[in-house]
Design goal:
Blueprint lengths: L5 E3 L2 E9 L4 E7 L5 E8 H6 L3 H13 L8 E6 L3 E7 L6 H8 L4 H20 L2 E2 L8 E3 L5 E3 L6 E2 L19 H4 L6 H18 L9 H9 L11 H10 L10 H6 L1 H4 L16 H8 L1 H4 L13 E2 L2 H6 L20 E6 L3 H14 L3 E5 L2 E7 L6 E12 L2 E10 L2 H14 L15 H7 L1
Parallel strand pairs: 11-15
Antiparallel strand pairs: 1-2, 2-3, 3-4, 4-6, 5-6, 7-10, 8-9, 12-16, 13-14, 14-15, 15-16
Helix pairs in contact: 4-6
């Protein structure tokens, strides 16, 4: 079966690798260089409907301004009559959060290296007048060499001339500084430092310092900085974390203070930055200049003819090298925000089983072709929980169901996925040992 390829500019577009409320992210390949990329797609109609033009324009502009080895790089911005395409660096190692869920906690020497890279990236942002405001392990990616990359600048802010404090309350509650929860304004740099401290605690402990089931109790603990360090934290790590998680932003240690700290400086090799590249925002301005005038309603992207076909190359990008066993053994599938299973049942039977199980779990079901979105309320009732499932044909009579979190907490998603798959055991295929890596590859490459 010949796969129809779709192109955006010089990029060949592949499967969906992420999906949120306002955007979809697809795997892409630069046909000139052969390099992988992540293609973030936004519908102009959605941007207009939710009045997000300025927010999206700001996010793109910020990512062009903050070029750093430990920040996900924005390559370019393109547009069509109905869509905006943001081409980003493809970071193959997944989220730092996934590593924490799998390992429970990360050794101190490794945690320190991640923290050093995080501080370098955040310091660079601050030097450009940019405050991230949503730093958390889920927004920290790892490349194939194990280097940290900061992503998701959707809530970031740029310094405005003459304005000293920020006033928008935003971010993820467990990682937010106490002053952000108030209504008196806050220093973006100090707030980001607090979030970095929470992240350091999480990666070393395997759990969050502030974690309550209801928001009032959570806010009370954050405001009082009520936490304790586990016994395995070294004295140096404990001392630095307490200096960072100081509820008073004026006495809280700053980034330069962190960089001088003895624990932080151990094996510290500051990243060498190339000379500042000239940042040109002309393409960003061009994309957004006439968005309201140029918008034309896009055609539906339904897949009524059958599920999308996935080739061997795309399958391999999902796995560690050429080892495809994680596609078949859910115990080995550690990508906690994006998980998958294989079935030999017909695609329509898979969808109907998914719908039935979802309804039994009191989830709202929205199906379009071979793609289903499940929605509910998060366990702690603080927001929406949503999951997207999509069926791909990987070989004749062999289908892969890709499951990914669209909204809600990643840990909650992980628990949901285990329970959901237990109820779908009758359609999940478990091949005999050795088949996942040999016969499937031969089938797909014939």
């Amino acid at each position: 079966m010949k796969k129809v390829t779709r192109k955006v500019g010089k990029y060949e577009v592949g499967r969906t690798i992420g999906e949120g409320t306002f955007a979809k992210v697809k795997f892409a390949r630069n046909t000139v260089t052969g390099e992988s990329a992540a293609l973030k797609i936004l519908a102009k109609s959605t941007i207009l409907k939710h009045r997000m033009v300025e927010q999206i324009k700001r996010e793109i502009s910020i990512m062009k301004i903050v070029r750093h080895p430990n920040i996900v790089r924005l390559h370019e911005v393109l547009s069509s009559q109905t869509k905006i395409y943001i081409i980003l660096e493809f970071v193959a190692g997944g989220e730092l959060f996934d590593k924490i869920v799998h390992h429970g906690k990360i050794p101190e020497h490794e945690s320190r290296r991640y923290f050093q890279q995080l501080i370098d990236a955040v310091a660079h942002c601050h030097s450009k007048g940019v405050y991230h405001r949503d730093l958390k392990p889920e927004n920290l990616l790892l490349d194939s060499y194990g280097n940290l990359k900061v992503s998701d600048f959707g809530l970031s802010a740029l310094t405005q001339q003459g304005v000293g404090l920020l006033h928008t309350t935003c971010g993820t509650p467990n990682y937010v500084a106490p002053e952000v929860l108030g209504d008196h304004g806050y220093d973006g740099a100090a707030a980001d430092v607090w979030s970095c401290g929470v992240i350091l605690y999480v990666i070393m402990a395997g759990y969050r310092p502030f974690d309550e089931s209801d928001l009032p109790s959570l806010y009370k603990k954050i405001n009082a900085a009520e936490f304790s360090c586990p016994s395995w934290f070294s004295p140096g790590a404990k001392s630095l974390i307490h200096k960072i998680l100081d509820p008073n932003p004026k006495s809280r240690i700053c980034i330069e203070g962190i960089r001088k700290d003895p624990w932080f400086r151990k094996n510290y090799a500051p990243v060498e930055l190339r000379e500042d590249e000239e940042v040109n925002l002309d393409d960003v301005c061009a994309v957004f200049e006439d968005i309201e005038d140029q918008y034309v309603a896009g055609r539906s992207e339904s897949n009524e003819g059958g599920p999308l076909i996935m080739n061997a190359f795309e399958m391999i990008t999902l796995s560690q090298g050429l080892n495809l066993s994680a596609l078949f053994d859910r115990q080995q599938d550690y990508v906690k925000r994006q998980t998958r299973f294989v079935s030999r049942k017909p695609a329509k039977a898979i969808i109907s089983n998914v719908e039935a199980v979802a309804e039994s779990m009191n989830l709202k079901v929205h199906t379009r072709g071979y793609k289903t979105r499940l929605e509910g309320i998060s366990a702690n009732r603080t927001g929406q929980f949503a999951v997207v499932l999509e069926v791909f044909e990987v070989a004749p009579s062999l289908f892969m169901v890709d499951v990914r979190k669209a909204a809600g907490d990643t840990l909650e998603y992980h628990k949901f996925y285990k329970s959901f798959c237990t109820k779908l055991e009758n359609i999940i295929w478990k091949p005999t040992e050795g088949m996942a890596n040999s016969s499937l590859l031969r089938t797909m490459t014939c």
